[in-house]
Amino acid sequence: MGVSMDTTNKEFLKEIIEKFDLTGNIISIELYGSGHINDTYLVTARGEGERRYIFQRMNTDIFQDTKALMENVTGVTNYLADKIRERGGDPMRETLHVIPLKTGESFYFGDGGCYRMYNFVEDAKSFDAVEKPEDFYESAVAFGNFQSLLSDYPADTLHETIPDFHNTGKRFETFLQAVQGNDRGRMMKAQTEISFVMNHEKDMTILTDMLSRGELPLRVTHNDTKLNNIMLDNTTHKAICVIDLDTVMPGLSLYDFGDSIRFGANTAAEDEEDASKASLDLNLYELYVKGYIEGCKGSLTDTELKMLPMGAKIMTLECGMRFLTDYLQGDVYFKVHKKDHNLIRCRTQFALVADMEKKWSEMEAIVEKYAKQYP
After folding, report:
1. Distance (Å, whole) CA 207 – CA 203
2. What span, in angstroms and rounded, lies between the C-alpha atoms of 307 and 302?
3. pLDDT digit string (tens) for 280-298?
4. What is the pTM of this model?
């Protein structure tokens, strides 16, 4: 939705926007979207016709190496555009397209910020929450297709913009330091949760060990697989484009799959105070498995397919451990809005892990079913 801005701010932004290689003259600049990290604007330009663009002032507090980040984004989007053309698709709708500066660079650094511009994906929209199960399925197809299109991309050439983001073993080491330090005196209240983590120590390095041994391939991963990072076509309601590529990095396909299940197939909200309400919705899990494997189009290895349930478990365990670590450290990373917020969050994650362990055979059987259906 467009939001009005004062004239001074618009003139300031217009001067920066005109440094980019736009088609036509700028006729409007409006605040856009519901994002919390970057400042986002919808820019309309008129030449022979009207074209719209997304213009962003990037958050350099969170993304400090913008050069590395934009090298990742341009490398991946250019590769996606080529692959989409090969498949007979429309790269202007099916992937983000970075609009360069008139001097050729992919972003502008100056005037108090770091700025970039994309094409606007027309006749499509994103949703902040799942309105119906089909939305979750469509997001699975989209992220599976994203994985398929990038299956041959040299993932090791990407910058790790957030080092060890899903290195669960290192997250465990940080957790142990928080327990040993007990600087905030919160250990007594979290004994059950601390024990839960310690009882899962053997799980912490399963995925990274398999990667080190060459049993799992290094992939391009999105690392923020929420529904609102998918554009759905206004007419067909089919997923057409994956957006928000700021956290694209080298990793494992299991990370993206697992985090989607952690967030989207939980019967409870992330900060539900009654952790007994948290469980794995097997119907939503099956929908996502079906869509993801279908979208991947045979690009996953047999080992990756077999390990999909483990991806869901480890990503949930890691997230819960991060909430618990932050609680023990005094809530220094995640924003909290009530007493013991991070402890509450970690309990819902651990309840979900425990429920997955109870439903493990069903989770494996569902993957096996669709692995056969979409070889």
Report:
1. 8
2. 9
3. 999 999 999 999 999 999 9
4. 0.92
